[in-house]
Amino acid sequence: MKDEDLRELTARIRQEMEGIQRVLERMKEGWERARRSNDDYYLDGVAPNLHGFYSGVERIFAQIAETIDGQVPCGENWHQVLLQQMMDEVAHVRPAVISTEIGKRLNEHRGFRHIVRDAQTLVQLVHDRLFLPEIYHGRPVRFSACNSSLFRLDRFAFQV
User: Fold this and answer.
1) How many CB atoms within 10 Å of residue 26?
2) Number of domains in the chain
3) Residues spanned by the domain of 100
4) Whether the Cβ atoms of residue 109 and residue 55 lie closer than 8 Å to each other
5) Distance CA 111, CA 93 (A)
6) What distance in Å separates the CA atoms of residue 17 and residue 10, rounded to the nearest whole number?
7) What is the distance between the alpha carbons of residues 150 and 120, in angstroms, rounded to a whole number?
């Protein structure tokens, strides 16, 4: 792998993370409006952004898999395999991109993409399982942890 490939990957990751941050800000605003107005109508806008959050993280993982690991999973369950791949260290190539704990939490978001259209399920899921209440206090903990992991990978890339 060339240094230029790693620099390009790092630039793509940073750009994607900026997009993810914008998505999270929109989610926070929608959630706050729903809370202030007591109107679940605003959650209809949160759902696609929640989907967008995971999709952005998954795009980063796919870029890492392609550029560093040299292999992006394929097949019916490629989303799960990719997530697991990011939890695993690749000996002499890269550290684990995310911890197992972050991987478990992101797996909840991965499964969410199948229910984005069901507003009632969304409302229940948001309250019971996902991180939207954490948005009240700023950036979600899960993105912060994932962001830190990717920052460590970024530093690793430039040490190679």
Assistant:
1) 16
2) 1
3) 3-159
4) no
5) 29
6) 10
7) 34
Res 114: pLDDT: 61
Q: From CA 54, how far away is CA 3, in angstroms rounded?
A: 28
- Looking at residue 88, its pLDDT comes to 95
Query: Under a CB-based contact definition with an 8 Å cutoff, are residues 160 and 113 in contact?
Result: no
pLDDT for 139 equals 44
Query: At 143, which amino acid appears?
Result: F
Residue 67 corresponds to which tokens in the numbers above?
Answer: 């550029």
C-alpha angle 33/37/39, rounded to 5°?
90
Question: pLDDT (tens digit, 9 = 90+) per residue, 87-133?
Answer: 999 998 889 998 888 888 888 778 766 665 555 555 555 555 444 44
The encoded tokens of residue 130 equal: 């996902």
